[in-house]
User: Fold this.
Amino acid sequence: MSNPKFSRRKLLAGSAAAAPALAALHEVVPHQGLHRALGGHQGSEAAAATTDGHGVHTTHGTAHATFADGRQVDHRANGFNPTEMLRDFDYGTTRRLASGRTLREWELVATEKEIEVAPGVKYESWAYNGRVPGPTLRCPGAEALRIHFANGSAHPHTIHFHGLHPARMDGMPGIGEGIGGGQIEPGERFTYEFDAEPFGLHLYHCHVSPLASHISRGLYGAFIVDPKQARPDADELLMVMNGFDTNFDRSNEVYAVNSIGFHYVNEPVRVKRDELVRIYLVNILEFDPLNSFHVHANFFHYYPTGTSLEPTEFTDTVIQGQGQRGILELRFPYTGMYMFHAHVSEFAELGWTGFFEVV
Ligand SMILES: [Cu+2]
Assistant:
């Protein structure tokens, strides 16, 4: 949905003139989801936690407490659910080559698809396999990989993988057209072929210009190459930090993990006390130079890009620029509800907020 009536830059300025725009945003972005969830889970603590930074609304905590009753994102219409997406790793299909190596293959199709990114907020996304982010491609290291790409949309696209590969497999317009690669036009196909290296947490995205538009529309996903020496058993979660510029003014109105603003407030991420939790964290946010992840009442070990088995940091907050990613490992020693959110506060208030529910 294109809604030129508000921009979040004006709205966050908190001026009197911004008040109508603010009201408009409050109607479409489910702030009330946060208040309701806090109220339900944490009682009186919620009141303090919901103090509004921009100082325009002082009563919306109660005024909006019932605002969204019955209003939810329609996950079925979207064709994906962020709760399921957390643990949905796509290992493709495999077969043994004559050489004895394993060949692993996936099929990816790019199409246009309307998705709902907050209750009532529709967005005309461009998606791989009908979901944003696209499937989380995962494989052991050193295998031979083939990704069969079909462009089923009205625009030219590619898949540019992060990793080690020859230039003609890079998904770059202008490189490889002579052999069928480069820019893939509507209706065309191409097979990307390379080895799974190095191990770590990578990503893939379209690389057609204007790049910011092709990426922000939703053409991206995570690509995990597992190390030969397996990481310890853990409850593994994928979190792609993203956002949506719903009025196409080159700033985002909705921020999220796995696309739906406040989803993990309404459906907290359920994990077990004392169990190792491993988060594959990717930042693909467009139009903002950085993003961050902060967890309450806990600390995590951080493995930048996941390319080492030794963590570099023990912290509770990490900052990622666009395209950066890393692996977080933590255990929750106590049961209860623990918030996680962007420590860029305005992102947190526009959707990038969730809860772990430790049982
Ligand atoms: Cu594209």
Remarks:
- The longest helix spans residues 31-42.
- Residues 157, 206, 208, 214, 219 surround copper (II) ion (CB under 6 Å).
